[in-house]
Amino acid sequence: MPIFKKEFLGYFRSPVGYVILAVFHVMVIGLALYSGYYSRNEANLNSLFRPLPWILIVFIPAVGMRLWAEEKRSGSIELLFTLPISPRSAVVAKFLAALAFIGIGLCLTFSLALTTGYLGDPDWGVIFAGYVGALLTASAFLSITAVCSALTKNQVIAFVISVMICLFATLVGSDWLAQFLGNSAPTAVLDFLRLLSFEQHFATMSKGLIDISALSFYIVLTLACLGINMIVIER
C-alpha cells in the first residue's frame, strides 16, 4: 500500500499527469465526435470504442514508461529493495497504481456515455462490456510497458519500444492485415493470428460479448508479463 500510494500520487505531483489525462480525454472525445457520433443517430458508443485501442497504444506507454526506468535512472531502486518489500509486492503495487491512474482516464470518457443516455436509450450492458474490454486492453498494454521500463534506465526508450510492441500486437490478426495478406496466407493461419489480436478481442467485447477466450487472453498475457517483470527486477 505505501508503494501504491507513492506511485499513484506521483502522477499528480507534477503537471505531466494532468496533461496526459487532458490529452487522452480530448483525443478520445474528439475522435468520437469526428467519426460521426451525432450524425449516426444511434444510441451507442461505437464511435468511442472503435478508435480507443489505437489511442491506448500511445497513452499506456506514456503512463507506464516511468514505472521502473525512473527508479533505475535515479538509483532509488537500490533504496527501494533495502526496505522489507518483496519484488512481487513492488511490481504489483506499481502496476495497480498505474492502472488506477488509467482507470481515471477512462472514467473521464464516461461523459459521452451520459450524453448518449440523455439523448437516447442505449444498451448499458454493451457499454459496460466495452469499458471492461478497454480496461483489460489497458492492463495488458501496461504489463508490456512495465517489462520494457524494467529493461532500461531511459524513459524515452521504454516508451518507444512499448509503443512498437503494442502496435504490433494490435495489428496481428486485424482485418487490415487480413486484407493485406489476401489469399497468400492460409485461413488457419489468419484464424490463429486473430486469437492473438488485441483489436479482435476488444471489438468482440465492445459489441457487448464478454467472451471467455478474450478474458483468458488478457489475463494470461498480463500475468505472464508481470511474471517477466518480477524476474527482470530480481536479477
UniProtKB/TrEMBL annotation:
Keywords assigned by UniProt, alphabetized: Cell membrane, Membrane, Transmembrane, Transmembrane helix
A Pfam family per the record: ABC2_membrane_2
InterPro entries cross-referenced by the UniProt entry: ABC-2_transporter_component
Cellular component terms per the entry's GO annotation: plasma membrane
Predominant place of localization: membrane
Protein's UniProt keywords contain Membrane: yes
UniProt subcellular location: Cell membrane
Organism superkingdom: Bacteria
UniProt key word Zinc: no
An MF annotation (GO) of this entry: ABC-type transporter activity
Membrane topology designation: Multi-pass membrane protein
Membrane-spanning segments: 16-39, 90-112, 124-144, 156-178, 215-233
Protein name: ABC transporter permease subunit
Naturally occurring in which organism (per UniProt): Pelagicoccus enzymogenes
Lineage per the UniProt record: Bacteria, Pseudomonadati, Verrucomicrobiota, Opitutia, Puniceicoccales
